[in-house]
Design goal:
The complex is a heterodimer of chains A (about 160) and B (about 525). Helix content of chain A is about 70%, strand content about 5%. By secondary structure, chain A is mainly alpha-helical. Chain A has a two-stranded antiparallel ribbon. In chain B, helix 7 packs parallel to helix 18 and helix 18 packs antiparallel against helix 19. The chains are: A mainly alpha (about 160), B mainly alpha (about 525).
Amino acid sequence: MEKQDGRETAEVRLDDPWYEALASDWGEPDGSGPPPAPVPPGSAADGDADSDIYLRVQRSAAFQEVRGRYRRFVIPASLAFFLWYFAYVVAATTAPELMARPVVGAVNVAMVAGLGQFLSTFLLAWAYARHARLRRDRAALELRWAVFDQEQARQTSGRAR
Amino acid sequence: MTGDHQTLALLLFSAFVAVTLGITTWVSRHRQGSAEEFYAGGRLFSPMENGFAIAGDYMSAASFLGISGLIALFGYDGVLYSVGFLVAWLVVLFLVAELVRNCGRFTLADVVAARMRERPVRIASGISSVTVSVLYLVAQMVGAGSLVALLLGGTSASARTWTVIGVGALMVVYVTLGGMRATTWIQIVKAVLLMAGAVALTTLVLVRFRGDVNALLNTAVAHSGHGGEFLAPGLKYGGDWSARLDFISLGLALVLGTAGLPHILSRFYTVPTARAARRSVVWAIGLIGGFYLMTIVLGFGAAALVGSDAVRASNAAGNTAVPLLALDLGGGAGSTGGTVLFAVVAAIAFATILAVVAGITLASSASVAHDLYASLRRRRSRRSGGRRSEVAVARLAAAGIGAVAIALSLLAQGQNVAFLVGLAFAVAASANLPVLLYSLFWRNFTTRGAVWAVYGGLVPAVVLVALSPVVSGSPEAVFPGLDFQVFPLQNPGVVSVPLGFLAGWIGTVTSPEPPDAAKHAQTEVRSLTGAGAV
């Protein structure tokens, strides 16, 4: 029941003019998994500083999940394209004979490798954007509002006292 | 090159200047005193608009004319440049764009200073950002000067000088009057023009060969004056080992430098959210990738249709390959089609330089006003009550940087443009990228680490260049008469980038103060969720 509520409010908030409506692209629901549990609300009455809110959010399971999803994509992908690019540059400078080997007609290994760099860049950019849209955006937005709520709660409780 | 080209090119270029000045006045018709408006253009650009603007900021005349020229002269070695310039965008997309949008307000230093003691970090990042920007600016303006000499036939020194001064004055007008909003629209107009020009020329080349790429490549080989090695790497960078290492160094600087260029980072603040920043980078990757693919066709097309020798005869560095190709595609010298196409290409090249120069000037004026002036003022403000608004300082700074860049460009007129661009990328990769990545991803990073990372990359990069064959000890050097060359490579990247990372690490582990866990939590949560983002 509580989860249901959290979901509804999150959907209402997507209409916030500061945040564009999330793309409801094909395959949106699958892969995103269940929405991560909202951050446990801290005891707002103790009037803790902003930094405590952030520390609490950082330790929450929901944030760890978002960070894990980001890192599990970005670290291997960065290593892969960097090594692939570095290998390409080193091969071009140290092994020109290999690069000059013909493949089809006038097209040689160097041409194929160069076009491969363009292609891998386009593919990785597309894969990253899709991964972020489907796996991170919704959870990140919910965390953003969780932080906002806690800050609001702290401010109102501070004013009440 | 007859007078017709020149008149038509001048007319088209004047039209571009008139349109952009019109945009500037239209956009600034409301008074806009806020920093949000001046540095970030109100933050409400759409991802597509910003994607075009990023592409406009990035695709300089050096790539349009320079890379195709390199391919026309040296074949495959020119392709290596375009690959490096494109792959660099994956670093920006994966590691920088969204996180910087979420954490910062206007500049690179905002991101770092959020975690650290503000003053030393802001001053260090401000200095390195201004250094990178001025180097890049000088490269573009030197390019403008030689372009005029090449395209309009005004080889006299005074024509160059007045072009450099005119370009500098125009960019100051754009930036001071229009701020980020006008600069962004100028980038968009320029990107559309540049893409349209490249698409038109590429189509004409492919139509000429009836879509047969094999025939295009074989004709290029036949007219290149080289054999089959024209299509393989090694003609330009295949000499001794220091030349090869030099190229690896350049490749490293290209791929890591883009993510440290201040005028690229500041573009992410013109969109409302990190999601929009990501989508604008995806747009930019599509546009930039398409553009560089077309420069490859244009380069081989110029070798095939104009011939490498004819290109070299016109300009030893190959910068006129595309204009000559346009002349040929339009029907040859003297024909109406040739004249029109040549003039269009020349005007697009001018527009490109103007737009890039305006973008860099804006970013560096933000660094001066928002980072350097704001930090230094805090100490002084106790004594003097009178405060000038930050935006007023930024406008003054834009004029000041314009003046400095004009002066330096006049001094550096003989320098190779591609080298100057490579140098700016090397400094950006050494001084800006390590501190940025450490701040975003390393829990234990400290203030001392941040300051050391900036200076530890900046100082070696600049010193190694001063000791390189670029400055002394070779016939093409800045001071050909002197010889204090110690470092063998032209590009310092392969040494100075690791030094920047190393200095940041040493500074952090020797730091007397413990890392601030709370501020790290704040940076990490904000960078990934957008909480508290402006």
